[in-house]
Write a structure and sequence with these properties.
This protein has 330 residues and is an alpha/beta fold. The protein is built from 10 helices and 13 strands. A 7-stranded parallel sheet has the order 3-2-1-4-5-6-11, sandwiched between helices. The radius of gyration is 19 Å and the shape is globular. The protein starts with a strand and ends in a 7-residue tail after the last helix.
Length: 330
């Protein structure tokens, strides 16, 4: 059995779909659906059962207390732990510690009890402003200074795993800017691709933040954008085909400008680019990342050989096949 937490989310639902395509449907899915419509992301997926996160935590605690007393969890071989509050604007640090850090520890303890492989979602947010680079070698973890509570909660768990040498079989995935179908529930945390599509549809133009650093002209701030299908393939590779331990970047390995992304979106919509540069909120200026790029050398050395979908091709697939037809779900 494979457990996937955060299974109804953007990356989670893509991971479950990738597992289904590989022939796996003995899956136990975990999430918190609440009043959102992300339950719709589960409709096309095959799985054995679904649990809300608190109910599943009760099951996990019973297994940990009784050492095998929960039949449903007796044959767990892999835990893919993607569930978290991923809002970079979340101010309740106590909630982030409990929901992201402590819950992750319980999943690690469950994996150890079951003798299961654990692959968990870390984040590029752990790198902070990038002053110490984006090297995913665990040796440099202590140097990182996340800029928000979400990034710090993920960083804490990376450090916790490092103290245990990621043993017996644990691996963290530092996702960069992931976008693609099934992100419609994410509100302010949705990708710029979806935000831009909606803005262009309603206003005919796209607004981007001005640059406040002389080395970057307006719109030439850079990000590493990763299509969710590639993120899913990287994740399932690390979970099922590899026994490497540590943390690994999941990105395209290419830094693209906001203008390049915007042009790809306009092109996929069949429109000429119309971009307006606007002032950045004062509260964001000190925390804004001007450059992110995920070196994926360690992932390649671990054996991942699949090509990463180029930005323009991935954006076209997302816009043409999902957004333009009415924001359909994968």
């Amino acid at each position: 059995m494979i457990i996937v937490t955060g299974a109804a989310g953007l990356i989670g639902s893509a991971v479950v779909r990738e597992l289904n395509e590989q022939g796996h449907d003995n899956l136990l899915l975990v999430d918190h659906l609440g009043t959102s419509d992300k339950w719709m992301n589960l409709r096309s997926l095959r799985f054995r059962d679904y649990f809300e996160k608190d109910e599943f935590l009760t099951l996990a605690d019973r297994r940990l207390a009784k050492g095998g007393g929960v039949p449903l969890l007796k044959k767990v071989k892999h835990i893919i732990h993607l569930g978290a509050n991923s809002a970079t604007t979340e101010k309740d640090a106590s909630h982030l510690i409990e929901n992201n850090y402590r819950y992750s520890i319980r999943m690690a303890e469950l994996a150890r009890e079951c003798g299961a492989r654990l692959v968990y979602a870390s984040s590029a947010a752990t790198y902070g402003d990038g002053a110490h680079g984006f090297d995913d070698n665990p040796a440099g973890l202590e140097k990182l200074r996340p800029l928000n509570g979400y990034g710090y909660s993920k960083h804490l768990f990376d450090l916790w795993q490092k103290r245990l040498d990621f043993a017996p079989s644990a691996c963290g995935v530092k996702y960069f800017n992931v976008y693609g179908p099934n992100e419609y529930h994410k509100g302010d945390m949705m990708s710029l691709v979806l935000k831009a599509f909606r803005q262009i549809q309603s206003e005919g133009k796209l607004k981007l933040f001005k640059s406040y650093l002389p080395e970057y002209r307006d719109g030439e701030q850079k990000r590493d954008f990763l299509y969710v299908r590639d993120a899913a393939k990287m994740t399932t590779f690390l979970a099922l085909e590899s026994d490497v331990r540590g943390v690994f970047n999941a990105g395209s390995g290419v830094a693209s400008t906001w203008i390049e992304l915007a042009n790809a979106i306009f092109g996929a919509m069949g429109r000429a680019p119309q971009i307006e540069f606007i002032d950045m909120p004062e509260t964001l200026k000190a925390k804004y990342q001007y450059y992110t790029c995920a070196p994926i050398d360690r992932l390649r050395k671990a054996g991942y050989s699949a090509p990463v979908t180029p930005l323009a091709e991935a954006v076209h697939d997302y816009v043409a096949n999902y957004l333009l037809p009415g924001e359909v779900r994968a």
